Amino acid sequence: MKFPKEFLWGGATAANQCEGAWNEDGKGASIQDYMPHGIMQGPSEVIDKHNLKLEGIDLYHHYKEDIALFAEMGFKVYRMSIAWSRIFPNGDDEKPNEKGLEFYDNVFDECKKYGIEPLVTLSHYETPYHLAKKYDGWRSRDLIGFYEKYVRTVFTRYKGKVHYWITFNEINSIWHFPLMGAGILTQKNLLKAQDLYQAAHHELVASALATKIGHEIDSENKIGCMVLGLTSYPRTCNPDDVIATMEESKRGYFFTDIHMRGYYPSYALKMMEKEGVVLDATDEDLEMLKNTCDFLSFSYYMSKCIASNPEQYEKGKGNLTTGVKNPYLQESQWGWQIDPKGLRYLLNTYYDRYQKPLFIVENGLGAKDTLLSEEKDGYWVEDDYRIQYMNDHLAQVSKAIEDDGVEVMGYTSWGCIDLISASTAEMKKRYGFIYVDRNNDGTGTFKRYKKKSFYWYKNVIETNGKIIS
């Protein structure tokens, strides 16, 4: 297996799932602090002390230890996010929180010490709660201005320290989970198509504006968009299933086309016309969208099948969006269908469409890991199932690069250290190379333990993927 010499190997986390310290050093509340059960249930009215995300894995106080472990594995890049409410506690504050800015200064300095490039997501499912409560999140055009102030602040502050940026995490999640994806507190069943398209438009304009500002402040900045990547197959070769798959794919391309091409494609205009949407898009908005991204990044965990008559088939399971079950694939412990070849297919699809660099910024296996009673060969968890999953996916990435000519910048495995699950808000659903002693009931010492996959991934990076089989 071959990977480019400059391939960026690393791992990924999100502030709301790992940092903790939810109200320390001037930080304000985010929507995640009101979501104790993950995306599957609505927000609570008050802060629930049982919300595991309030403490996360306490990376806020362990970041030096954790980054040292990432460096031991040989990370070239660390994808992380800035908590917007740690910089602007309410989101619409006049001045930023200096303590919050200092924290990320320290994190970036620690990365630099080990030669690790930060890849920073500006908004990762954690809109400041005040913006959700007062403005109903991105339904309000006002959020473009608040986001502009935030990104201008961090682009300026971290100039020279950060060169890789992502504007929004899985921006297409707004279709399925508008609270998580756009900070919209109004229940989904009360939202009209007009509301969702308008909120999406505000985020797209803000993303383009951030790209413009980032390039102006530092010409060395590389700024990407990020979507939930899902390969969709027709359930059968019946032309009705093929057409249904084509229609489903358009909803996925809606965000990547605008980010990468700089305008609303004709099918998007038709989609809105059919759904009775009259978009409030100014000439200035449409001009702003021309600020296209330098690269396309995406998460990939599974594929799905699409049928014109889905009620005839068993429904699939997933984190944000599902189709019907694929009879040819195995499943994870959470019912997510495992499809390494779907990753190669998706890489080809995106690259053929845009001819711009791609970055796989989330991929991994959530599983119930068991801590061994005593250390074995330097590790405490025997997670061969995770090693196999990642090996099989990276083999397909190599094929996309070597056999298909796809330009892939790098790969950051999701949850490189165990963290709180976004979909279920559990701790027992673990992705990491590093086990964190924390349990679903909130107990635990927060002690870090290396898994078998820690040494495997270290070897992958050392050999630049040559051990992948």
Automatic annotation (TrEMBL):
<dbReference type="GO" id="GO:0005829">
    <property type="term" value="C:cytosol"/>
</dbReference>
<keyword id="KW-0378">Hydrolase</keyword>
<dbReference type="InterPro" id="IPR033132">
    <property type="entry name" value="GH_1_N_CS"/>
</dbReference>
<keyword id="KW-0326">Glycosidase</keyword>
<protein>
    <submittedName>
        <fullName>6-phospho-beta-glucosidase</fullName>
        <ecNumber>3.2.1.86</ecNumber>
    </submittedName>
</protein>
<feature type="active site" description="Nucleophile">
    <location>
        <position position="362"/>
    </location>
</feature>
<dbReference type="InterPro" id="IPR001360">
    <property type="entry name" value="Glyco_hydro_1"/>
</dbReference>
<dbReference type="InterPro" id="IPR018120">
    <property type="entry name" value="Glyco_hydro_1_AS"/>
</dbReference>
<dbReference type="Pfam" id="PF00232">
    <property type="entry name" value="Glyco_hydro_1"/>
</dbReference>
<dbReference type="InterPro" id="IPR017853">
    <property type="entry name" value="GH"/>
</dbReference>
<dbReference type="GO" id="GO:0016052">
    <property type="term" value="P:carbohydrate catabolic process"/>
</dbReference>
<comment type="similarity">
    <text>Belongs to the glycosyl hydrolase 1 family.</text>
</comment>
<dbReference type="GO" id="GO:0008706">
    <property type="term" value="F:6-phospho-beta-glucosidase activity"/>
</dbReference>
